[in-house]
Amino acid sequence: xxxxxxxxxxxxxxxxxxxxxxxxxxxxxxxxxxxxxxxxxxxxxxxxxxxxxxxxxxxxxxxxxxxxxxxxxxxxxxx
Length: 79
Hints:
Helices cover 76% and strands 0% of the residues. It has helices at residues 8-31, 43-78. The chain is mainly α. It contains 2 helices and no strands.
């Protein structure tokens, strides 16, 4: 965790909830006979999907800004 700079709390939560998610995903796909459309039939599913996409985009944007600012600062210090 320290090597990849991953905080301990989210890693532990993912480590615990990951297998539960996999089991329930497998069960729901078995019930729906492999149809992925079952995950997008209700509005709550769409809401969670939209929030996931939003947070991924915001995280990528934040990290890109950090990288851009760091590279600009390095360029200015060498000039």
